Amino acid sequence: MQGTKNLTEGPIKKQLFNLALPIMGTSFIQMAYSITDMAWVGRLGSEAVAAIGAVGILTWMTTSISYLNKVGSEVSVAQSIGAREEDDARAFASHNLTIALMISVCWGFLLFVLANPIISFFKLDTEISGTAVSYLKIVATGFPFIFLAAACTGIYNAAGLSKIPFYVSGSGLIMNMVLDPLFIFGFGMGTNGAACATWLSEATVLAIFIYYLKKKKRLFGGFPFLIRLKSRYSRRIFQLGLPVALLNSLFAVINLMTASTYGGHIGLMTMTAGGQIEAIAWNTSQGFSTALSTFVAQNFAARKKERVLGAYHTTLKMTALFGIFCTLLFVFFGSEVFSLIIPEKAAYEAGGVFLRIDGYSMLFMMLEITMQGLFYGTGRTLPPAIISITFNSLRIPMAIGLTAMGLGITGVWWAISISSMLKGIVAFIWFRILQKKIL
Fold first, then answer.
1. How high is the pLDDT of residue 186?
2. Do residues 15 and 295 touch, judged by C-beta distance below 8 A?
């Protein structure tokens, strides 16, 4: 197929690494957007970080919903490539972009209009709430950039060209790193400056993607960005992507609602900033998981199941090693790592406790995300969604019970950590039960 890489032949390890490293780089770049904002806004104090944290649940949900078309692209386009169906690959690419635009416009408009009542739900101080509302209204207008860029990333990943999203996202990060201090301190815009810098950077990323798809790196001989939707393709995209979007959205809602309820603005700040640091582990495993998903999708469609198992075992070994490293880093050096983001003593001491408890679950989180990639590649996105939604929902009664036992906010952190362990174990067992049927 024109402009794509064939993953059904050649050395498995080399192909996985060539796919995974740029995807990990792209994930770290996307994480660095938030960390850059947190690092600069952290100089304004924990209240400013809490304001961004209140919006964090919504931007996190936005990214989660955009997975509908990111994963929808990665699996549907990759399986079409593996089956050598170029017309379907073009159609799926166009449908994912069109659906992404439609959903993002509706979602961004909704959050812009309802910014005040949504932020008031967190019961923050009046000044913090006002800052959060202003920040949310700015970033909400840029949500179409996030959705469309996610769909473009999925299309390129499916084609085996994961380096392109890495380079494009890297350009946006450099721009964001330059604009953040300029807007926040140079122009005296505070948290609104961070929002404007991110907005401009995300718009630039989408503009570069459009240039690549239309002019520089035409895939499948070219395809339209907007198309009249057909039920066959739309249904398949929602079948693949909706469970992923739901599980990630619910994950965001439960984590930040629980932290805000039991920890006030310090709990919200700890969960938000700590989540960004935890993303070091999450994004690494997610990079391998996405590469595994793309690799499996092409080979599963081409009926080369021995290559599917070979890629799975290779990915599992790599993520396990990194999970052990992250456990040691977070358990023994959590406060030091957290202080790099927010130097306020009360903040990094609270953050250190969160990272230590969360660190015990790193290996299991790696296992869960690796299994997700394997399930996604075979077109079975429902089992990971059931596992994630079930055990994330259990975090609420677990947190209530543990805090009632006198653990306070640390009870919330233990609920998060224990549920992560259970998700990894159950995902592994579920696949082992279905392995003969799938492969």
1. 85
2. yes
Report the C-alpha gap between 42 and 420 in whole angstroms.
28
Give the DSSP letter string of 134-183: HHHHHHHTTHHHHHHHHHHHHHHHHTT-THHHHHHHHHHHHHHHHHHHII
pLDDT digits over 165-188, tens only?
A: 989 988 988 898 889 888 888 888
Positive/negative CA dihedral, 22, 240, 281, 103: positive
Phi and psi at 303, nearest 5°, equal 65, 35
**What single DSSP character describes residue 225?**
S
- Interatomic CA distance for residues 192 and 204, integer angstroms: 18
> Which long-range contacts link 180-185 to residues 24+ away (Cβ below 8 Å)?
180/36, 180/37, 180/40, 181/40, 184/40, 184/41, 184/44, 185/40
Give the 3-state secondary structure of residue 188: coil
Q: What is the rounded radius of gyration, in angstroms, for the C-alpha atoms of the chain?
A: 21
**pLDDT for residue 314 is more than 60:** yes
> Could you tell me if 438 and 309 are in contact, meaning their C-beta atoms sit under 8 angstroms apart?
no
What local confidence, expressed as pLDDT, does residue 123 receive? 67
Token pair 């677990």 is at which residue?
398
